[in-house]
What does this fold into?
Amino acid sequence: MALISPSRRLRRTPFSDGVEAAGVRAYTVYNRMLLPTVFDSPQADYAHLKADVQVWDVACERQIELRGPDASALMQYLTPRDLRRAGEDQCCYVPIVDNAGGMLNDPVAVKLDQDRWWISIADSDLLLWVKGIAQARGLNVQVFEPDVSPLGVQGPKSEKLMARVFGAAVQDIRFFRYAKLDFAGRSLVVARSGYSKQGGFEIYVEGGDIGMPLWNALFEAGRDLNVRAGCPNLIERIEGGLLSYGNDMTAQNNPYECGLGKFCTADADFDFIGRAALARIAAEGPAQNLCPLEIGGAAVPPCDRAWPVMQGGETVGQITSAAWSPDYACNVAIGMLARDTSPEGLSVQTPDGARPVTRRARFWI
Amino acid sequence: MALISPSRRLRRTPFSDGVEAAGVRAYTVYNRMLLPTVFDSPQADYAHLKADVQVWDVACERQIELRGPDASALMQYLTPRDLRRAGEDQCCYVPIVDNAGGMLNDPVAVKLDQDRWWISIADSDLLLWVKGIAQARGLNVQVFEPDVSPLGVQGPKSEKLMARVFGAAVQDIRFFRYAKLDFAGRSLVVARSGYSKQGGFEIYVEGGDIGMPLWNALFEAGRDLNVRAGCPNLIERIEGGLLSYGNDMTAQNNPYECGLGKFCTADADFDFIGRAALARIAAEGPAQNLCPLEIGGAAVPPCDRAWPVMQGGETVGQITSAAWSPDYACNVAIGMLARDTSPEGLSVQTPDGARPVTRRARFWI
It folds into this structure.
């Protein structure tokens, strides 16, 4: 593996000092910001995430704030998901597509009130899309990136840790809902959400100045819980079927083939970008489908490009994320297969050679 | 320095196999694509760039293609630079700003013909901005990322090398102009341009399949010229005053304060995004200015965040790029200083402590 060169362009976060002190070994870059990927080793980080509690610097989930009288109208115009009955404590996973139905991002929209939303984005500069749309339509709404940096608390002991810092109220927060809770005299959005299947929270830290105080408070409160710095774990997120924009889907994919049809309103009585394209795809059915796949043999190399999936000499799909799972003792993977691909005789071309592939009915976790 | 974790999301390029075989040591991520930063060492790469010739994988300069009857109208609407007399062999450095005059990108626009442009982008997803604008305005133009990956040939011996592969016609290409030249039976845009002050070319490689054949042809033809794999060099680009979007300027900066006023038409008789804001800034004059700065003392650490520039206890600016220059035996830097800052008593707060700062009249190269 090569090194990563530091520069201002790869933005640090309010938690970077803590991440460095914790001995981060590797990064990826996400929304032009540093995202830790390894502290001990991917395997050791994985085992710890499933056993204890981790604090994650996911500041790279940048927010787009919509503020003004047209905020809710713009939010609805941006997504095929019907948001008209979204509650004011709700976080909504929302596909965002272009006119052709291609996925531009798969963020979480956080409704703060009727005139104010945050869009917590995956890895693309969705801010430019939203600003362009808002401006060209002459909407009465400000669109900008606020000083808000999510901090994840993930793992089976996360509720215990969070209750020590934010009080027992965290226990009442339902999945993909949030409460406003105090830290250092500031009221923060605390949601039960996060990019693992081990349970946990995301704290939308408003104001970088309280980033390290909160980081330190969590570590002090969690000493006996074996709290550690962690990060989204490749193995665990594949086991859990958590998709990664840019890995498992790109602008070349539509939400239906990504298994996100349940977030799309095919016969919508409201207008949104991509409406006609999605209606057509919904009627015809998608030409391919993302699915859980198991790759035979020993641990696969890092999946740094799409690996073709073959059947009888023909390409029938591709694998886009893969890793060796210690708990399931196999290579867990996510890939796209052509519709109606029969399950027999599938193989994948990895850089190490061909391997057998088994399609699974569901993800592991 | 930490490692960089491989994933499909950090896209490989048509030249990645060559880059790896050449022993790349470090990367940055640019437009969600791998950009090499070090082969031997920054200092050795720098000396070689100034003496011989290098081949650069700058595929991360992704292209946005505008194609259709409204392509030229859209291109003009996107930038304050007057493009109405741009020639069909011209490459134009064009600031792209939002409604408030904030820089969204500083790409090179390549005019292919009246109905077809490429925008060769710096590090932001400008595609989303352009698609959003084109769609919302109902323009008759396709906007997409084509399969085009620039390959740089930079250094004093670059013309010699290029002539061996593309023929003597390369000698007639003027600065920021291009010719269409053949390789492997394909006609490629070859421009005299690039992100160094050592002279050179950028080949817009259309079709990833000829990436490695072209890479290999350049290395075979240049053996006696001491050709090597290289990359944009931090030291040399600061010496030459080549700005880096995301480092030296962001969406918080306007083109006038970045020294790009000469590319803006203050009293334009054509419409473009940001026109009113730029007219106001042009009239008032910018509140700060990017300038060449020299930092005293031994080699500075990597500049991975803005370093505050102080004068008499007050912050008067920031340094955004800095490196030790072997040739000039000082720390060369780029920074932003408040208008009318007097030259005396300037200092910068680096992670290693305060250092004296001298404002220079011009860059080093």
